[in-house]
Design a protein that fits this description.
heterodimer; A: alpha/beta; five-stranded parallel beta sheet; four-stranded antiparallel beta sheet; 9 helices; 12 strands; B: alpha+beta; 3 helices; 4 strands; globular
Chain lengths: 279, 97
């Protein structure tokens, strides 16, 4: 049974010599690797849905050294220590996705362990960030999502100064609020705003949800039509598809729709006219 | 700069937060209640929850009372207007209990 159905993780391995930190992941029943000698056994039963989280550079190095000869195919690797850039090609061969800190400065990093563990198991992990890395050369920030470490790269220009003049400080980066906020110095950006502007799939999902939640008469007609499996053209010749669209989009309000049209809509949608706006 | 409404110690310890961040989704003006991996947006023009999910019933009444307490509500509206002068809250609703 997967540890996180939403994120397709069936096992978690934590590479760490510290004793306390892995306790944060206890709900995910992690396999603990605290010595280099434990690595071969760990890899032998790992799968393409295994997640590795490393807090220890030496253990990561041992993982790379061991793996290059046996070519395992592992799921995702999260390296919460400054990663030697020369290891990245090898890690990319071992893991389907990797996320890593570029240095020990405050321009990259991940959520604290207790928040990271919760986001990795969250149903909405896809819409939360677990960490990121600032690149001042390309003026971009790469953010990793809670679902299998899918990356999203956004330009500095996405973080426009606030109306009160607060400016983002790209040399002081962190992800906070269980992956819901990107902090750049004193400046904070809502993750849903970042996703909305930079991820078309997220925009589609949110737009769809908002349409479903919309409480207007037009939205009610749209939902009802969808429930009945009808296309707008199927109201013709009594009501033109264009008129149906105008009503659904709110361009023609309920009080502006002729009674005859309301009755025809109701008949086609198989409801009483007075109940049209209640769906 | 991000505005964080001060909450009683118990709620803070339980990891509840109420914020208006420097970069929020544009429309309409709102305040965000954050709890661990979940959040709720409350419309500053109407006082209503903007989303059906997660369920608004999960937000403790104590937080709603604090958010809608007149001084806090006015402060939140003012902070939104400071951060987003091109999209101001035109009318702050009366206190709702």
């Amino acid at each position: 049974m997967p540890l996180s159905a939403a994120q397709n993780i069936d096992s978690l391995t934590v590479l760490d010599r510290a004793k306390k930190r892995p306790l944060c992941f206890s709900r995910m029943r992690p396999e603990m690797v605290s010595t280099k000698s434990q690595i071969p056994k760990s890899i032998s039963h790992a799968t393409k849905n295994s997640l590795y989280v490393s807090y220890d550079k030496d253990l990561t190095e041992a993982l790379v050294k061991h793996s290059v000869s046996i070519h395992p195919s592992l799921g995702a690797g999260l390296f919460n220590h400054a990663l030697d850039p020369r290891w990245i090609p090898a890690l990319n061969k071992i893991f389907q996705r990797i996320a890593f800190k570029t240095d020990e400065r405050r321009e990259s990093g991940f959520l604290p362990p207790e928040e990271l563990a919760e986001v990795l198991q969250a149903d909405n992990g896809k819409d939360l960030f677990i960490g990121g890395s600032v690149d001042t050369t390309t003026k971009t920030i790469t953010l990793w999502r809670g679902n299998s470490l899918e990356p999203l790269t956004v330009p500095f220009s996405a973080f426009i100064p606030a109306g009160d003049g607060a400016q983002p400080d790209f040399s002081d980066f962190s992800v906070t609020d269980y992956g819901q906020t990107v902090r750049l110095g004193d400046y904070e950006a809502a993750v849903d705003a970042i996703l909305y502007e930079n991820d078309s799939d997220y925009r589609r999902r949110i737009s769809k949800r908002r349409l479903q939640e919309e409480q207007t008469f037009g939205a009610s007609i749209r939902r009802l039509r969808k429930q009945r499996g009808l296309r707008r053209e199927e109201f013709e010749p009594t009501i033109s598809a264009k008129t149906v669209a105008r009503i659904e989009q709110g361009k023609q309000k309920q009080h502006q729709v002729r009674n005859k049209t309301l009755e025809a809509l109701a008949e086609r949608l198989q409801v009483e006219p007075e109940k049209l706006g209640t769906f | 700069m991000t505005f964080t409404l001060k909450l009683p110690a118990g709620l803070r310890k339980a990891q509840w937060k109420v914020k208006i961040r420097d970069k929020e989704t544009c429309e309409p003006p709102h305040v965000t209640v954050i709890y661990r991996t979940k959040s709720w947006r409350i419309n500053l023009r109407t006082g209503e929850f903007m989303d059906e999910k997660p369920s608004p019933s999960e937000v403790p009444r104590q937080i709603l009372r604090l958010v809608k307490e007149k001084n806090n509500w006015n402060r939140l509206c003012k902070e939104w207007d400071n951060l987003y002068p091109s999209n101001p809250v035109p009318h702050a609703p009366e206190k709702e209990e």
